[in-house]
C-alpha cells in the first residue's frame, strides 16, 4: 500500500536532530516507495512549509518533534502520528507501522508514540 505522507521535523535546538530526522524519513519513504514532503522547523526557521493542498492530499501527517510546533492547529483534522525525534531515530520501523495503522484509521485519528 502506497501512503502519501507529509511530515514536520523539529527539535529543541533546531539544528542537527531536525535535519537528521528529515533525512532518515526521506530514505525510509524512498524504500517504501511512498511520496513524502517534509517541513523542517529549525535554526533556519520554517523551511518547505506544508500547504493546505499538501495536507488535503496526504494520507497521514507524521510529526517528529520534541517541541511545540508553530501553527500546529492545521493538523487537527488529519490523521497524525506524533513521535519524539530520538525515538524516531532509534525505532523507525515502529513509526512506519504506526503510519500504516493511521492510514487505515478514520480522519482526525491521532496516534501518540513515545
Task: Explain this structure.
The structure is a single chain. The chain is of the alpha/beta class and 114 residues long. It has a single domain (5-112), classed as Rossmann fold (3-Layer(aba) Sandwich), CATH 3.40.50. The chain has four helices and six strands, in the order βαββαββααβ. The chain has helices at residues 16-32, 52-57, 85-90, 92-103, and strands spanning 5-10, 36-42, 45-47, 60-65, 80-83, 110-112. Helix 1 links the parallel strand 1 (5-10) and strand 2 (36-42). It is globular and about 35 Å long. The model has no long low-confidence stretch (mean pLDDT 94).
Give a topology summary.
Blueprint: E1 5-10, H1 16-32, E2 36-42, E3 45-47, H2 52-57, E4 60-65, E5 80-83, H3 85-90, H4 92-103, E6 110-112
Parallel strand pairs: 1-2, 1-4, 4-5, 5-6
Antiparallel strand pairs: 2-3
CATH-defined topology: Rossmann fold
Please count the helical segments.
4
Which CATH C-level class is it? Alpha Beta
Ranges with pLDDT <50 over ≥5 residues? Answer: none
Quickly give the structural class: alpha/beta
Question: Any guess at the CATH architecture?
Answer: 3-Layer(aba) Sandwich
Q: For the record, what is the CATH homologous superfamily label?
A: Response regulator
How many β-strand runs? 6
GO cellular component, one term: plasma membrane
Keywords: Kinase, Phosphoprotein, Phosphotransferase system, Sugar transport, Transferase, Transport
Domain PTS EIIB type-2: 3-101
EC number: 2.7.1.202
